[in-house]
Amino acid sequence: MEKIKCPSDILYEKEWRAAYGNRCNAIFLSNLMHDGESMRKLFHNEGGTHSLPVEVQIFYEYYKDHDKEKMLNRIEEVTTDNNGYVDFYLHPFHIDGYLKNKTLQDNRSSLCAFYGGTHESSWADLSNYEKRATMRVTDEFSSGQSVYYDNKSVAEVLKDTVEKTTFLEKKIEEPTKNEQLDLLVRNLIQNRDEKLHIPTYAKALKLINNDLTSAFEQKTEPLEADAYVPVIIMLDEMSANIFNQIDYKQQRTFHKSDLGQEMLKFSYLTTQNMFKKGNSYNGFSADAMNAWLSDIKNTDLWQVAQRKITEAIVERWAHRVEVGSLLNNRMMELATIKPKPKEAMYADYWQEDMKRSGYMNLYVKPQNIR
Q: Please, what's the largest Cα pairwise distance for the chain?
């Protein structure tokens, strides 16, 4: 049975598991529906390796019951955040002027609107669900998985996506031997259809971070890959629910918050390739990790902190990280300022941050030049 001794082991374990996800299906569906890559981006932004974005279930039910009004109502619910804004990047399927014309639009709508028009999503037209194609699709951005579709229709692939039996909750069977962590994981899975309970998620993240750190420092035995890697994937993908709830006010303090620090630690522990498989060099240092976290936390300006976080994540990509991390992707999004809050007391802060974003290089310490 495979063991986890350092961050690189996690990457190798995640890589083969990623091949059982739905990303190729998402690419196939976007290709046939010509939806401006809305479906592909949905899986890219929300994971899709072992989880199912709710919009996919909504469209599948629409195909079965033909109830367009119900579909529109549900899409509107899932694409609107706590402040009433549509998260355009996270949810490529969105409603524009819903109360006026009940039109479902995809991510081409903003471009069409620029030229004075709108574009209804292909997913609103049931006749499109019968489109068929024969093609090979390769997920070049993550697992490298390749799937051949032999005269498959949109409806058939949509059904396969919804009914796929490789979803993460069906794979978490091995106990981690950390009873408290196992209990929290079961709680998160059982309540997956509800709004994420952040304290439960944060506690699970802290516990797994502690287990990983102890194992990497060789203070405990290496961890069982079959027990821990599915949990790591789950926590990584569930992070989308955290970022979905972050507004401008929370964005400013994310890097200093306890949850933000645990998420940064989780990223550090699970998305670095410190050595090639088969080599004996571990390369992990808890002191180096804690120093990096401390530097981020002690950075006064949140935009500078986010710049440091983004640079660290990009640097990891340069070291043969061949499997994606939704948490990393969404963490880097925090470098882009969120919509202006409705509370007047934050208006001046928001205006100042908007101005600063245009000349961020003035706030970043220059690198040593030789």
A: 67
Alpha helices in 66-190 (DSSP H): 68-78, 98-101, 109-114, 154-163, 179-190
Distance, in Å, from the CA atom of 224 to the CA atom of 186, rounded to the nearest integer, reads 18
| Residues near 56 by beta carbon (within 8 Å), at least 6 away in sequence | 39, 42, 158, 161, 162
Where do we find the tokens 């620029």? 114
d(Cα 301, Cα 353) in Å, to the nearest integer? 9
State the pLDDT at residue 87: 66
Compute the CA torsion angle 4, 2, 177, 261 (nearest 10 deg).
Answer: 30
> Strands (DSSP E) along 28-83, which ranges?
none
- Give the number of other Cβ atoms within 10 Å of residue 258's Cβ: 10
Instruction: Tell me the whole-structure pTM to 2 decimals.
Output: 0.67
Average model confidence (pLDDT) across the chain:
82
Dihedral of alpha carbons 178, 180, 181, 186, sign: positive
A 10 A CB-CB count for 177 gives 13
66 CB-near residues (< 8 Å, 6+ apart) = 126
13-61 pLDDT, tens digit each? 887 666 556 778 889 999 999 988 888 888 776 555 556 778 888 999 9
Alpha helices (H) along 246-356: 248-253, 258-270, 286-297, 302-317, 326-333, 347-356
Element (H, E) at 34: none
Q: Which helix (H) or strand (E) covers residue 137, if one does?
A: strand 132-138
